[in-house]
Design a protein that fits this description.
single chain, mainly alpha
Amino acid sequence: MTYPIPYLKTIMVLVMLSLPVGLGVNASYFITSAIRKKRISTNYLGLIISYALVFLVSVLTGVVHPADIRFDADLPGAAAAVAAGCLCIGVEYLVGVFLTFFSAGRWVFRISVHSVYSDTEKISLGDILAVVVFVILEELIFRFALMSVLSGFSLPAAVMIGIAVCIFALNHVHWGLISFIQKLFSGCIFVLLYIVFNRNILIPVLAHLTQNCVLLWLSRIGKKANHE
């Protein structure tokens, strides 16, 4: 005799959605090792494949429904997203400065931009496209899919937000404790944008893209300054 376990399929999908970066990091390592060329696109390719597979499986199980994705044009929301993306950079910078002070005992105000960006000598169109695709997939997983699954457990909004933010930050812990704490703040901003603008995924996507594009631009400025 078999005994059905309530929410089993949903819980399994939730676990899968919680750590998609593990497979992606390993895949990216093998891809960059095989190509032997440091590019943003090759660094992100493994993550893109991993995230796409995780999202596809969550849809095929019937737990996540792509028809529920809202991708609506919203001018005030777009303006708020751009501002929020810039705010994320400022908040993460300040968090990095204070955490560095607590660990090193001295103030360090010059903090390097993400190594995936700063280690790339020349940015190509393929690199920019990889950033866009990666951001969209990350938002589909950590905002749309994750929040959809958590909503099925009838949790209080604050608990749902807390779990979603922690899972998002946890997927950045391989870049260090500072990165994990920084992503707690930016993750909170992204998920609040998603909720405030009626789960319109376009808004956190624009905010996240703004953050990454500005960081990409800053990495070029820093590289140029180092060469002078």
